[in-house]
Structures are given as C-alpha cells and as structure tokens.
Design goal:
By secondary structure, this protein is of the alpha/beta class. It is built from nine helices and twelve strands. A hairpin with a 2-residue loop joins β4 and β5 (79-80). α4 packs across α5, α5 crosses α6 and α6 (162-174) packs parallel to α7 (192-209). Belongs to the ABC transporter superfamily. Keywords: ATP-binding, Nucleotide-binding, Transport. Residues 266-278 have a biased composition (Basic and acidic residues).
Length: 326
C-alpha cells in the first residue's frame, strides 16, 4: 500500500478577456486551489468536503495527474508524480485511479461492460492474453457485486441503472488493483435508495483490500459515514481538518458548522429554523482579503477582513482549524 503526500498545492487558471483589457491591465486569473496540504496514509479514507466551486474536484484531478499544478508537489511514496515518465508513469496509472461523479458520461456507450473493464488491462499491459484479461474483468464484476445478478459482461451502459453504472465505474478502477482511489462525488448523481449501497461497497473494498480512498463530497454526513479523517475546503483553502470520530460534537470552524447544520436530521422534528449560509460564495477571481469566509461568517470580527488565518491545533489530537475567533 502507498502513502500520498500533497504539499502547498496551487492551481491557477487564466481568465479569457479581450485584447484591450489585456493591454491595459494584468490578465485576471482564478486560483482554484490555494496552498492545500494533505496526506493519505496506506489504507486510509480521507474526505474532502465543501460547496461546489471550492476546488475539491480540481485537487482530486491533480492527484491523478489529470491536471498539472501551478505550484506545489504531489508525492506517492516520496516520488513526485509530475516527474514520472515511461514505465514509472504507467505504474503510477495503475496505482492511482479515479471514479468520476457522473456514471452516465464516464462509460463509453459503444463498449460492452466486459470491454470497458478489459480496456485498462490492455492499456497498462497487465495481462498478456485476452483470456486472462477477461477472467480478471469478471472478477472485478464480482467484487462490485454485479457478477451474481446475471450476465452483465455483455450488456451496454444504456441497459444499466445509475447505481449499476457507478459500480461498473468502480470496477473499472478496481480491475488494475490500485493502491488509492480518488472518488469524486460518487453518489451525488444517484437515487437516494442506492447511495448507501455504493458507499458500503467502497467501505468494504477499503476494509478487505486496504485501498486508500479520497472521497470528494459536499456532504459532511457522507464523509462521517465513510472516512477516517475529514478536510473541509472553502474557496480553494483548507479551513478545518479533523478525525471523523470528532463529528459532529467537535466541529469548530463556522463554515463547517453551517455545512453540518444544512444536513436535515430525519430522526427528529426540527426544534427551530435551521442555520444556513447567506448568499453565494465570493468570486474566485477577486477573493476577499483576509479570511475568505468572513463576508458570510456570523462570527466575523474586524481582524478577519485584513489578516488571513492559518491552520492551528484545536485542543489535543490532529484537529486543526483556520479561524481567528476560535
């Protein structure tokens, strides 16, 4: 199993503007990810949580080399993944896999399920014969609990439900026996009735095979169910990191608390109006000075608008938060 270490990761995208504006002023840019640090220990499940546009998906894509960082490093067992070439790069492709959010768009409609699962084996040269590739693909179907439901191998994506397609996508990642899977909102496009089964599948694969997982989600409740640690992002920045066992009791950052309050509790009647986030997140092209959350924060003080907080320990253990008022 492998250890992934991310250090001061930055991703900036230039914003397209007219020629006249380029001449008169500096070209604007969006800093989607700003100085993010995280680690995934062997066999660990880490949750990356935040609203849409906070930079969590961009972070996940950089971890599997689908995006190149503007600055910072991503190291797998001490090796910078952006320096890999040739055979080492191919080995990295096997060890790091990604499951995308939309199961409807991530499967080739012209390929059968069997062909979909065999294709990574051909690309990475993991099995010499077609028979061996087929056997390994069928084993992957069994691992994602589709093998016993009939002959799925000869079906096509349009013949499957959303939950079944996402299981195939997980099987495609699993067939190459990865060390770490980056799962980007793997259940957000699925019906509520099948979300729990897909999350339990990921949980079982982690426990039985020791696969590390980075779970990207907007839902703190989902992260608590599956993850060992939870990292909360806001507008490209990490604002809190904590063990999932500390949730919800020890959540400290105002943004994390509001995210948690936005999750309805179906076990009890609401005792009053729920807290909610006011307004939309500020523009990433022109983020607020100081703490990026201060325009929406109910606890903001004057210092928050001028001085950017850094992550600091919150009591004992590995709990950290970036907030001036805590």
């Amino acid at each position: 199993m492998s250890r992934l270490e991310v250090t001061r990761l930055v991703k900036t995208y230039p914003v397209k503007v007219g020629l006249w504006r380029q001449i008169r002023s500096r070209q604007p840019s969006v800093q989607a990810v700003s100085n993010v640090n995280l680690t995934i220990e062997p066999g660990e499940v880490v949750g990356l949580v935040g609203e849409s546009g906070c930079g969590k998906t961009t972070t996940g894509k950089m971890l599997v080399r689908l995006e190149k960082p503007t600055a910072g490093s991503v190291r797998l067992d001490g090796t910078d993944i952006f320096q890999l070439k040739g055979r080492e790069l191919r080995s990295f492709r096997r060890r790091m896999q990604m499951v995308f959010q939309d199961p409807y768009d991530t499967l080739n409609p012209r390929r059968s399920i069997l062909e979909t699962l065999m294709q990574p084996l051909r690309y990475l040269g993991l099995e010499a014969s077609a028979a061996a590739q087929r056997e390994r693909a069928l084993e992957a179907l069994d691992h994602v609990e589709l093998g016993a439901l009939g002959d799925f191998s000869n079906r096509y994506p349009h013949q499957l439900s959303g939950g079944q397609r996402q299981r195939v996508a997980i099987g495609r990642a699993l067939v190459v026996e990865p060390d770490i899977i980056v799962a980007d909102e793997p259940v957000s496009m699925l019906d509520v009735s099948v979300r729990a089964s897909v999350l339990k599948l990921l949980q079982r694969l982690n426990r039985e095979r020791g696969i590390g997982i980075l779970l990207i989600t907007h839902d703190l409740a989902t992260a608590k169910f599956l993850c060992d640690r939870v990292i909360v992002m806001y507008l490209g920045k990490v604002v809190e990191e904590m063990p999932s066992s500390a949730m919800p009791r020890a959540v400290r950052h105002p943004y994390s608390k509001l995210l948690l309050a936005s999750v309805p509790d179906l076990r009890s009647e609401p005792s009053g109006p729920r807290e909610h986030l006011d307004g939309a997140a500020p523009s990433a092209i022109d983020p607020p000075s100081g703490c990026r959350f201060h325009p929406r924060c109910p606890l903001a003080v004057p210092r928050c608008s001028t001085e950017e907080p850094s992550l600091r320990p919150m009591g004992e253990g590995s709990h950290m938060a970036a907030c001036h008022v805590l």
